[in-house]
Amino acid sequence: MAIVITVATISGITGLLALLLSVANRTIADYGEKEILINGEKTLTVDGGDTLLSALVEQKIFIPSACGGKGSCGYCKVTVLEGGGEILPTELGYVSPEERKAGVRLSCQLKVRENLKIQIPEELFSVRQYEYEVAYIKDVTPTIKHLRLELPASEEIDFKPGQYVQLLAPKYKGNDSEVYRAYSIASSPSDTKAVELFIGYVERGIATTFVHHYLKPGAKVTVVGPYGDFYYHESDKEMILVAIGTGMSPILSILKYMRAIGSTRKATFYFGARTCEDLFEMETLAELERDLPNFKLVTCLSRPEESCHWEGNVGRVTNMLEKYLMDDVTHLDKEAYLCGSPVMIDSVIPILTKKGVPEAQIYYDKF
Ligand SMILES: Cc1cc2nc3c(=O)[nH]c(=O)nc-3n(C[C@H](O)[C@H](O)[C@H](O)COP(=O)(O)OP(=O)(O)OC[C@H]3O[C@@H](n4cnc5c(N)ncnc54)[C@H](O)[C@@H]3O)c2cc1C
Ligand code: FES
């Protein structure tokens, strides 16, 4: 009996404290309405106290937030020209000393407690929220799913080949918060009614568990975008494309776009995977090789299983690229597009620069 009374008393006190905290939040911490002047031309009136990221999202201005506001991706940077106080310890790891001097802040960490003047890239004004329907979702490797998401008949999305969208993973059993995660678009921008994504499973990952275990054809999903400065650049320079795993997504979008515009650019795609089972979209790439007159695919497996009798390149994609570039005696001005893990990209960049590819012509997305 004594135990029951003690438990009931503790629960009562905890409940009362929670209530007091919530009342205090709404009264003591009431910052009232604040004004945010954006790019010197657009003024928003928002409720103070929220993060700048949330305040902007409320007003349908979608700043990229690949980690969903956890302060762990560094994508939500905005330049704060006035207001905002001192930079927070949680921002320091993502803001360089030069950026700090220029007023760059992580909008998911900064709370709107006073009027602000901020600067954001103009293209973020065209980022929109879409409700897509899952047309299909299928396994292409034991760990990667291919999704096609379609828009209602009256809507269209405009994006550049190589860009990404953010998919909202809602609450589900075992996950009590909504999170946005970034996924590169694999389809061509000429397909304005849909986006295709390749999503790899991450053990205990919030969004990938949702996609791999809960998302079904016919379901509605919220997508925000497009985002990103990794995209196809019009020119006639020879292209070196390098990707591993789902890093193939934006490269596919670029190649499909090149096919749609009848491009004759010379392009070689170096794709690395672990085993034969991890190869995907090989038929699509073979079709692209057939349709694009100067495109070549070079694949490489780091650990081919004996059972698949692999006769192609073996090793890391970086070694393969080095080998192919060594044999390349052309001195044309080249352009490179890299997508995959930070480790892969950080080892490919020096190989390319050593071969004379200017850093300004090396575009990449790390994930
Ligand atoms: C610009 C951009 C484009 C991207 N495009 C794609 C894409 O096309 N396809 C795709 O599959 N992913 C892509 N990603 C990665 C994606 O946004 C998520 O980070 C990833 O799907 C994990 O999300 P999650 O919510 O499941 O994992 P979380 O819940 O965020 O992470 C769970 C745990 O796993 C760790 N973790 C996260 N990612 C990995 C990983 N890859 N390997 C090992 N551990 C990890 C985290 O540190 C954490 O400890 C992209 C990321 C960026 C920034
Ligand atoms: S949203 Fe990822 S750091 Fe701010």
Q: Can you describe what's shown?
A:
The protein has 3 domains: 33-124, Beta-grasp domain (Ubiquitin-like (UB roll), Roll); 127-227, Translation factors (Elongation Factor Tu (Ef-tu), domain 3); 238-366, Nucleotide-binding domain of ferredoxin-NADP reductase (FNR) module (Rossmann fold). 27% of the residues lie in helices and 29% in strands. The chain has helices at 2-27, 52-58, 89-92, 97-102, 206-214, 248-260, 282-291, 317-327, 342-354; strands at 33-38, 42-47, 77-82, 104-106, 116-119, 128-139, 144-150, 164-169, 179-184, 194-200, 220-227, 238-244, 267-273, 295-301, 313-314, 334-340, 362-366. Residues 17-23 have low confidence and may be disordered. The structure holds flavin-adenine dinucleotide and FE2/S2 (inorganic) cluster (FES). Flavin-adenine dinucleotide (FAD) binds at residues 66, 164, 179, 181-184, 197-200, 202, 204-208, 228, 246, 249, 365, 367.
CATH class term of the largest domain? Alpha Beta
> Order of SSEs, N→C?
HEEHEHHEEEEEEEHEEHEHEEHEHE
- Please tell me what the overall shape is: globular
From the 3D coordinates, which CATH architecture of the largest domain would you assign? 3-Layer(aba) Sandwich
Query: Which small-molecule ligands are present, each listed once?
Result: flavin-adenine dinucleotide, FE2/S2 (inorganic) cluster
Q: Give the biggest sheet.
A: 6 strands, antiparallel
Can you identify the CATH superfamily of the largest domain? Nucleotide-binding domain of ferredoxin-NADP reductase (FNR) module
Derived from helix and strand composition plus strand pairing, the structural class reads alpha/beta
Q: Based on DSSP secondary structure assignment, what is the total number of beta strands?
A: 17
The share of residues in helices is 25-40%
Question: How many alpha or pi helices?
Answer: 9
Query: Rg, please?
Result: 24 Å
What gap, in angstroms, lies between the N and C termini?
56 Å
| pLDDT averaged over residues | 90
How do the strands of the widest beta sheet line up side by side? 9-8-11-6-7-10
Question: What portion of residues belong to β-strands?
Answer: 25-35%
CATH topology call of the largest domain:
Rossmann fold
Q: How many structural domains are formed by the residues?
A: 3
Residue runs with pLDDT of under 50 for 5 or more positions: 17-23
